[in-house]
Amino acid sequence: MIVALGNDHAGYPLKDGVLQILRSLGVQVIDHGSYDAEPVDFPDIARLVCDSVLTGQAQRGIMVCGTGVGASIAANKIPGIRAAVCHDIYSAHQCVEHDDVNVMCLGAQIVGPTVAAAYIETFLKAEFSTEEHFRRRVAKLAELERANYNPR
What we know:
By secondary structure, the chain is α/β, with parallel strands linked by helices. 48% of the residues lie in helices and 16% in strands.
């Protein structure tokens, strides 16, 4: 598996741990930075990670920022990306199995490397369900992306 990895400056302290986790799992990594603790805007990094997923260069993406929330918001603005903040084991597999999530977002200020390892391994091993109701719901998410949404 190939994973696109991105982080901002707040996620940088967890980055080495995430890289070690991915390598220990035999995962190839496309590292989109950041590469130090200098401030960087997470939407710029999210675009790089998501582009790798959408073009097929990577099967999944992982974003690390302070809480995971900003990275998730940025990634979810890109059509075709379904990103989720995962700060527990259940969310890490359920988001893939039920919602076909392709980008996991972690908060370096929330979890440490040991806990992140369990979440990442769970996320990468999860597969989208073949059950019709989950596939129907994900198709409706794609419809929302294509629509010019106007509140009723």
